[in-house]
Specification:
6 helices; single chain
């Protein structure tokens, strides 16, 4: 059983990291512009930034629910969804990270922290779920 204080520490860490990522994202404008120009994709595929935006929206949705209500709706479904959202499971992001990441250190750092936020969120929800399954 996870103590309430430990869950609060985990939640606060998630919220702080999310706030840090929000600030970092705003500072990526120059790199985003450069990557968009120099890293084109076929018309029938999502660009690196479109894939990233989809991931950010999903992860931030869960984080905002945790921030406001300390939980999410349908915890098990949220855990399963977050487990499929690995930044490095998306081919265009993984390829960019491996081949171009060193040229764009702020974007590389952002990708690492976003995936870390995803993992922290999964861990928090698993702890929360385990805590709810154990009778007081």
């Amino acid at each position: 059983m996870v103590q309430s204080g430990q869950l609060d520490i985990q939640r606060n860490h998630i919220v702080r990291l999310f706030q840090q990522l929000t600030v970092m994202y705003a500072d990526l404008k120059t790199e985003i512009s450069h990557i968009t120009i120099h890293y084109p994709v076929p018309d029938d595929e999502f660009s690196l930034w479109e894939e990233l935006e989809l991931m950010i929206v999903s992860i931030s949705g869960y984080v905002k629910q945790i921030q406001s209500s300390k939980t999410v709706h349908k915890i098990q479904a949220a855990i399963a969804h977050l487990q499929t959202l690995s930044v490095f499971a998306i081919p265009i992001i993984d390829q960019f990270y491996r081949t171009e990441g060193d040229r764009y250190p702020r974007t590389k750092s952002y990708l690492q922290l976003l995936d870390y936020l995803r993992l922290l969120t999964v861990e928090y929800l698993q702890s929360l779920q385990a805590d709810e399954l154990i009778p007081a």
